[in-house]
């Protein structure tokens, strides 16, 4: 979590039927049960945590849990755990939502993840969850078997990977040609990559960068300044 602790969730504690959220101090190996987790926690139905916990770099861990209601309809909840207070916050819950791996956070505070529908015949989908507005959105559905666009099934078998090129990559367990699974790339908008600047002999600096427009009309510019965080930076348009 950036503070020397590993976080995790157990499905069932040895002395009860309640799951537990815990952390391990990597300096001392001490394990601490932060809180028990019951099926009405934070006012949201959910138990049986089924994913790894994912730190968002802003003091919170994210994970999902499944709940079986009396009718047998399964629901999944996306939770946020405040690592400083132990407060548990329900983010999104739906029977049309299944997540078995943790999402990835982009630069805008939006989580990107893969899911499927419980027994609804869906091949799975990619979703976004805005951590500020709590808005859950399906980006698109996978189409199953075949050789066309967006083929594949069960993308929740593996988490998304954010590559250095700015795009997300993932894989499906099934679907595609021969129903053997697919490897896919999720592109969204132009992808700029700043390269190392070159100091010229007369003291000037030559800026370099690469831009992949991803089939969109694109204009590029450099931001430069003495502050590493680009405070009060100047903008230099490219020709």
Protein architecture, described:
The chain has 239 residues and is mostly beta strands. It has no helices and 19 strands. Strands 4, 5, 6, 7 and 8 form a five-stranded antiparallel β-sheet that branches. Strands 9-10-11-12 form a four-stranded antiparallel β-sheet, with no helix packed on it. A three-stranded antiparallel β-sheet has the order 1-2-3, with no helix packed on it.
Reading the helices and strands in chain order gives: EEEEEEEEEEEEEEEEEEE
Output the number of helix runs.
0
Indicate the low-confidence ranges by residue numbers: none
What amount of the residues lies in strands? 35-45%
First-last Cα distance: 43 Å
Percent helix, as a range, is under 10%
Features:
44% strand, four-stranded antiparallel sheet, five-stranded antiparallel sheet, mainly beta, 239 residues, single chain
Give a brief outline of the structure.
The chain is built from no helices and 19 strands.
């Amino acid at each position: 979590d950036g503070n020397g602790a590993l976080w995790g969730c157990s499905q069932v504690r040895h002395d009860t039927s309640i799951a537990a959220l815990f952390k391990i101090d990597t300096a001392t190996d001490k394990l601490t049960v932060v809180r028990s987790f019951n099926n009405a926690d934070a006012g949201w139905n959910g138990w049986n945590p089924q994913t790894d916990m994912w730190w968002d770099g802003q003091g919170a861990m994210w994970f999902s849990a499944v709940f079986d209601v009396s009718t047998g309809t399964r629901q999944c909840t996306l939770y946020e755990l405040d690592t400083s207070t132990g407060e548990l916050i329900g983010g999104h819950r739906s029977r049309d939502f299944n997540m078995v791996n943790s999402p990835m956070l982009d630069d805008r505070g939006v989580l990107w993840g893969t899911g499927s529908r419980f027994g609804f015949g869906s091949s799975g989908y990619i979703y976004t969850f805005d951590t500020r507005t709590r808005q859950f959105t399906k980006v698109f559905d996978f189409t199953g078997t075949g050789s066309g666009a967006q083929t594949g099934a069960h993308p929740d078998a593996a988490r998304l990977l954010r590559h250095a090129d700015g795009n997300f990559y993932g894989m499906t367990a099934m679907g595609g040609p021969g129903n053997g699974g697919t490897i896919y790339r999720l592109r969204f908008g132009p992808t700029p990559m700043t390269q190392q600047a070159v100091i010229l002999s007369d003291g000037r600096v030559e800026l370099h960068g690469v831009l992949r427009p991803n089939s969109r009309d694109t204009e590029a510019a450099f931001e430069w300044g003495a502050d590493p965080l680009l405070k009060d930076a100047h903008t230099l348009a490219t020709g």
